[in-house]
Amino acid sequence: MFKWGCGLEFLLVLCGLELSWSCPRHCICYTAPSTVSCQAHNFLTVPEGIPPDSERIFLQNNKIHRLLRGHFSSDTVILWIYSNNITYIEPSTFHGFTLLEDLDLGDNRHLRSLAEDTFHGLARLNALHLYRCGLSSLPNNIFQGLRNLQYLYLQENHLKFLQDDIFMDLHNLSHLFLHGNRLWSINQNTFRGLRALDRLLLHQNQIEWVDHLAFHDLKRLTTLYLFNNSLIQLSGQCLDMLPALEYLRLNDNPWSCDCKALSLWEWLKRFRGSTSSVGCQAPVNMVGKDLKELRKEDFPNCSPTAPNSESRAQTHNLSSTVNPSMNRGVVIGFGDQTSVVQPSRPSRSRNCTKPRNRLSKGKEDNEVHHSKEVMADKDNSSSDFTEGGKHDHTSPDGTVTRRKHKCAPRTTMRPPSGVQQANNRAAISQSLLHVHAIFVALITTYVGSILR
């Protein structure tokens, strides 16, 4: 036994690790960084004797039922407790854990509820895993103060509703996974505050309705999955809110391809990114057709849709170029009146997004646990998007693509046509008036002299 222990220590030293002799039974502990690995030992409770300075604690694949205050030290940086039988987490369990960056509570199917302040104070938390936890609802302020969070995994729960502003504090969130729940609507302020969001997965829910302003804060979103829901229609105005969108999946919804689909059809014609098919299931003459392949003639008697937001912005720019109160610009004369046309200033272009560096956050090579359970979509779109790792970033079609430049060049405003001609005519008319006045004066003088 002593020889085996010496051999283990020697192997760890070869790997650049220093064995720690203060370690719970059946666990492996080492330093640099200080780590406790107690995975897959059928523990019913958190084992005693975890060194207080442990930075990384791995307790996955056990049968732990409860998490209580004092089980872990506030020095913890990474804590994995996924795939256990956790049914209760004391609200103060993680209070004071200001160094915690990665917390994985996923695959605890009987957890079902969380206290509002469970994660309060975790200012450095970067990734929070709550997938497959049996959650049917979330407390209002559950994510309050998590301003450093970038990855939030909430997929495969029983969530039916997301209240307004629940993600309001997540200013740096880039990935939000909500697929495999029971959501049926997306409201105007469901995603308010998520200005850094890059990927939003909402597939495999029961979504019937999306507010036309639901995505108003998602200016940096590149990937949106809405397939396998109950959507009959979706307004193009809703998607106009997403200037950086590159990948969109809308397949496997009961789309109605009548006049209600006209704005979506028009948006799809303008979109230059990657989209799935949009299969029509109504009316009868459209069943089996792809909305993307329809023509304008397929929408007879449909009134035109409202102009998109970009068109409205350009119209506003045009209408604001003439400003008589300005003292600089092109002077235009019409008879006795003058006005000033102010040349339009270069307006800020839309978000022609530059390629952004996306850093994949993976586990270190010397982890005791090198790969976690693969969470891939188990439907016909799995080839489009799979999660090979916790933070693996792959494009939906498996390739790296570039968005085409979608911003039209701006042109400088000129005076309205015909203005110069009007100026010329006004000058000629004025000259004729002068000649006429001189001629009348001469005639008057001449007639007066004769009468004398």
Automatic annotation (TrEMBL):
Transmembrane segments: 432-451
The keyword rRNA processing is assigned to this record: no
Residue stretches in coiled coil: none
Residue ranges, compositional bias (Basic and acidic residues): 361-395
Cellular compartments annotated: Cell membrane; Cell projection; Membrane raft; Membrane
Membrane-protein topology: Lipid-anchor
Keywords from the named record: Cell membrane, Cell projection, Glycoprotein, Leucine-rich repeat, Lipoprotein, Membrane, Receptor, Repeat, Signal, Transmembrane, Transmembrane helix
Gene3D superfamilies tied to this protein: Ribonuclease Inhibitor
Regions of compositional bias (Basic residues) in chain numbering: 347-360
InterPro entries: Leu-rich_rpt, Leu-rich_rpt_typical-subtyp, LRR_dom_sf, LRR_TM_domain-containing
Keyword check for Chaperone: no
Pfam family, any one: LRR_8
Region (Disordered) residue spans: 298-421
Annotated Gene Ontology cellular component terms: cell projection; membrane raft; perikaryon; plasma membrane; side of membrane
Composition-biased stretches (Polar residues): 302-326
Extent of the signal sequence: 1-22
PANTHER family referenced in this protein's UniProt entry, alphabetically: ANTIGEN BSP, PUTATIVE-RELATED, RETICULON 4 RECEPTOR LIKE 1
Family under the similarity heading: Belongs to the Nogo receptor family.
Descriptive protein name: LRRCT domain-containing protein
Organism: Takifugu bimaculatus
